[in-house]
Inverse folding.
């Protein structure tokens, strides 16, 4: 138990550092570029993230499950060659779809987005896909510490490049996206260097694995698509019905919330690593003790930030982002559900419950999207915040039922041992 807490603290420390850099990027660009500039950046990153997630087919998480269920060193080499081949195919399809949306929809999806910014967004997609694959291969092979280091180095370099291009070269709205491109490129390069014992470009030996990966990915992908709708499509819907200024105001609040999820994200990375080595049951014996402490910490932070939100936002972003305060206070309620969902996701995936998780998540996401489409045109960005709260309230209930189910299983197993 002591070892897992030490690993969590190490992962948490790195994510705090990365979170600080992301937070500083948000504050700096909000100050320099204003709500409209932040809105343009948020729109292009939301589309890139959406397409990378949709066409990534959730194979990054499937790879964790494969290594966990097949205790064979050769599986990692097969996974590498399969994922490398599929990332090329998926990236090509995603870019074609991206271009189609941009060129043949009258630019309705990218209103007020300059062409050069769109091109940078296009370049993000393949990097996002392979970054997720390579990071999870590191986690699956019990190299979490290297995954942490690769992201820290990449994010630091990206932040420095963002500052240079923003203040010295005056690249404006292009600077944050260039910084993200540098982050992914460096992180991927380091991951490939660490994974070199598993590098395998011979697809012939793993064609059956490709088919199995796609089959498993399709089952899990239902859950990923649902999660994506819950976490990011509100930004796109706001951009469609309103303007980039509203997107910027909403995204300032939502990005603040996401930056606060670094602790559950750190814990989840450690849990995936432990599951790949010890299995879901052994990991649950430790995970069940960790969750209450993390949730208590999240609740304390939420209350503290609610009390300070007015002063905090004015100090960080300036008076142009006053409307973000109300959205942020509402989203603090959703942060509790987001944290709990993240802490439980390793058990859903580790147990291979892809379809069950997918059906639940898609049902919640469909409800969320429908409510956004109905209420955002009428009530604006606060409607998006409240529908997010409602969605993650349902998520808390379903994850608590799942926790109760696996807890009963664990007690039953422990009684027989």
């Amino acid at each position: 138990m002591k070892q897992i807490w030490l690993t969590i603290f190490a992962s948490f420390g790195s994510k705090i550092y990365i979170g600080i850099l992301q937070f500083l990027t948000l504050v700096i660009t909000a100050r320099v570029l204003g709500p409209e500039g932040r809105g343009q950046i948020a729109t292009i990153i939301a589309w890139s993230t959406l397409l990378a997630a949709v066409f990534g087919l959730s194979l990054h998480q499937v790879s964790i499950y494969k290594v966990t269920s097949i205790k064979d060193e050769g599986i990692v080499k097969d996974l590498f060659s399969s994922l490398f081949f599929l990332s090329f195919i998926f990236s090509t399809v995603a870019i074609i779809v991206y271009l189609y949306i941009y060129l043949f929809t009258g630019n309705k999806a990218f209103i007020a987005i300059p062409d050069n910014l769109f091109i940078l967004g296009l370049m993000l997609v393949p990097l996002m896909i392979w970054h997720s694959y390579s990071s999870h291969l590191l986690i699956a092979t019990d190299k979490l510490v290297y995954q942490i280091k690769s992201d820290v180095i990449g994010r630091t370099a990206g932040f420095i490049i963002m500052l240079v291009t923003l203040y010295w070269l005056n690249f404006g709205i292009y600077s944050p996206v260039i910084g993200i491109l540098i982050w992914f490129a460096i992180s991927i390069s380091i991951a490939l260097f660490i994974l070199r014992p598993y590098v395998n470009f011979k697809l012939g030996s793993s064609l059956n694995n490709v088919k199995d990966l796609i089959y498993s990915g399709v089952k899990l992908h239902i859950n990923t698509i649902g999660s994506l709708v819950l976490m990011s499509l509100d930004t796109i819907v706001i951009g469609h019905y309103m303007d980039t200024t509203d997107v910027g105001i909403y995204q300032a609040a939502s990005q603040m919330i996401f930056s606060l999820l670094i602790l559950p994200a750190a814990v989840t990375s450690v849990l995936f690593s432990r599951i790949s080595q010890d299995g879901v049951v052994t990991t649950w014996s430790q995970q069940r003790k960790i969750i209450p402490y993390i949730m208590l910490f999240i609740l304390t932070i939420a209350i503290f930030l609610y009390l300070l939100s007015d002063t905090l936002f004015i100090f960080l972003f300036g008076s142009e982002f006053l409307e973000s305060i109300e959205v942020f206070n509402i989203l603090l309620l959703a942060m509790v559900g987001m944290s709990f969902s993240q802490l439980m996701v390793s058990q859903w995936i580790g147990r291979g419950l892809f379809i069950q998780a997918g059906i639940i998540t898609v049902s919640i996401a469909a409800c969320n999207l429908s409510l956004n489409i109905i209420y955002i045109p009428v009530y604006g960005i606060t409607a998006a915040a409240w529908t997010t709260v409602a969605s993650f309230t349902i998520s808390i209930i379903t994850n608590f039922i799942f926790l109760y189910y696996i807890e009963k299983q664990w007690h039953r197993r422990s009684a027989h041992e």
Remarks:
- The chain has one domain: 2-416.
- The chain has a mean pLDDT of 80.
